[in-house]
Amino acid sequence: MKFKLGTQTSLSIDDSEVFRLLSSVYVTEGYTSKESSEDLFHPSKIKERGEIICARTYPDNIFAGMVILVPPESPACKFAGEKEAEIHLLAVQPEFRKKGLGKLLMQQAIRIAIQKNYKKLLLWTQTSMESAQRLYRTLGFIPNLNRNFEAENRVFHFYEKKL
């Protein structure tokens, strides 16, 4: 399977498609409550986070996945300091999983972070997101157990990658 990567704008992905993908992955699969998602995944909130990196299938042009590269100056940034960025909301449609798309999206985010001269990438993920954690470790992210945290009765595992 082939994928085209680009920004939400360059791939002509509508805000409603982004909302549906995030809701499908995070709410339907039990990672976020429906109540939280209405605000958390609102298009204005998503866009203010940072650079939305998206993927469409080729040649079918189906919106298949996304991830957000969040700069330290973003209002959505929680932990990154100067010369650091965060990775938020990696999401891949279920039918496109296990085809390398999550890895492609993350590699693109890493490339952009390097181009922007960030020195470190930060991310966090829930305990139950085992395949995501395997992907992050494969890409060189190191767990930082001292920064794990709990929010909304969920444990989050913190990862870092020096660039």
Please explain how this structure is put together:
The protein has 163 residues and is an alpha+beta fold. The protein has one domain: Gcn5-related N-acetyltransferase (GNAT) (Aminopeptidase), CATH 3.40.630. Helix content is 31%, strand content 32%. It has five helices and eight strands, in the order E-H-H-H-E-E-E-H-E-H-E-E-E. The chain has helices spanning 15-27, 34-40, 43-49, 101-115, 130-138, and strands spanning 2-7, 51-58, 63-70, 84-92, 120-126, 142-143, 149-151, 154-162. Strands 1, 2, 3, 4, 5, 6, 7 and 8 form an eight-stranded mixed beta sheet that branches. It is globular, with a radius of gyration of 15 Å. It starts with a strand and ends with a strand. The model has no long low-confidence stretch (mean pLDDT 96).
Shape descriptor: globular
CATH domain class name: Alpha Beta
Figure out the total of helices.
5
**Could you give a short account of the major beta sheet?**
8 strands, mixed
CATH superfamily: Gcn5-related N-acetyltransferase (GNAT)
- Give the helix level as a range of percent: 25-40%
Order of helices and strands: EHHHEEEHEHEEE
Distance between the termini: 29 Å
Mean pLDDT: 96
Unreliably modeled segments: none
Measured on Cα atoms, how large is the radius of gyration? Answer: 15 Å
Tell me the domain tally: 1
Assign the structural class, choosing from mainly alpha, mainly beta, alpha/beta, alpha+beta, or little secondary structure.
Answer: alpha+beta
Question: Looking at CATH, which topology would you report?
Answer: Aminopeptidase
- Number of E-state strands: 8
* Percentage of residues in strands: 25-35%
- So, CATH architecture? 3-Layer(aba) Sandwich
